[in-house]
Design goal:
Length: 118
């Protein structure tokens, strides 16, 4: 999904940071909904994911690797760990860190709690 006129500008990764990329169009749509509904917490999530996507030290209740069949996902032909960041009570971001590329693939972003984890 290429940006076009009128779209928000995403900041580039600084040296040593991870680049965030949408794995699916639905994730991009969900991200925009999170940005409108909870801009501050969504920015905090972006900061966290771009610095150290697996770090649970700052807020261990908000960051976790998903379990079972949701714990891994194939992205661009590679099997990667899939994690979750709790943005708000129900709002979630699912993502897959790719160590080789230093890219975080956003696989899901939603203002609603995902039913798959109930």
């Amino acid at each position: 999904m290429a940006p076009k006129r009128g779209d928000r500008v995403a900041p580039p990764a600084r040296a040593g940071e991870w680049t965030l990329v949408f794995a699916e169009g639905a994730a991009a749509t969900g991200w925009e909904e999170l940005c409108h509904q909870a801009p501050g917490p969504t920015r905090e999530a972006w900061d966290h994911l771009s610095r150290n996507p697996r770090d649970r030290a700052l807020n261990p209740t908000r960051v976790a690797q998903l379990r079972g069949e949701l714990g891994h996902r194939v992205v661009r032909g590679r099997t990667l760990e899939q994690w979750q960041y709790e943005v708000t009570g129900p709002g979630r971001i699912w993502y897959c860190p790719d160590d080789a590329e230093r890219v975080v693939y956003i696989t899901r972003a939603s203002t609603a709690h995902p039913k798959q984890t109930d």
